[in-house]
Input
Amino acid sequence: MAWIGPRKLSGLGMLGMNSRNLEFIGRYNDRRLYPLVDNKLKTKMLAQEHGVPTPGLQFVVREQHQIRHIERQLSERESFVLKPAKGSGGKGILVIVRRKGDHFIKSSGELLTLADIRRHMSNCLAGLYSLGGTPDIVLIEDLIAFDDCFAGYSHEGVPDIRIIVFRGFPVMAMLRLATHASDGKANLHQGAVGVGLAMDTGRCLNAVQFSQRIHTHPDTDNPLSEISIPNWRELLILAAHCCDMTGLGYIGTDLVLDKHLGPQLLELNARPGLAIQIANGRGLLPRLRKIEGLREKRKVTAEQRVDYVMKEFAEA
Output
């Protein structure tokens, strides 16, 4: 199968920006609920209320003056993830994988000093990475120990799984693999690899980097076609529950597989991007219309919705 560009995808039911904004985000997402997903701390608190597993929260920094004494809270922490609560697109996220003396080591191997950490925190609080540039807070979370199934596939960072959920039904998914180009972050715009996943099995359908089709990981040369996600139905059910707990009808759920704790919710997005279609080599629109056409049924569980999509959107 040759690489499929955005124009060719239109013939395969590609969802465009205007249609996404007006027909799905605008129609199915109540704006008053946006703060639940735009603020990662609020998302984490909501997830805890609903029993949805998320990476452990170590502490929160709310004010600039707290940064002066941050070495006390970091002194016994070998690894952590620092992120702005209102950041988007992976901006402002700092992944520390280990310590070496007085230095903090990023997933890329770059060494940072305590002064670097303080400066980054200060920028986060000032709103440098937040939506709209508004003042923010800093979350320090546990570092995910990614599942062994990803060994050799995610370079210098933890892979995550983006699942689009519409009206409680998972409709499309992709695995995002960090690369050296993406600085260890699973962000497609920064150079991560996007792997389209079959809804029935979680196996690789297609893979792209910078919208170009690829067959092997650019840093490790491992064949991407061999990828198959374990605990696939469990991940889809977790994504479906995320839609239920927020009350939003069209969301992107970002999940990870921790080798010790299993599936975890990283964050939610009320305005998920469209690159997932490029990664899958097919459009979202036919699946969204299919779900729109379903009759309303009371007490349809997340498990029942997942079983429906695994059968309805099964790959040949």
User: Anything to note?
Assistant: The longest strand covers residues 169-177. The chain has two domains: 6-38+146-312, 57-141. The CA atoms of residues 240 and 302 lie 6 Å apart.
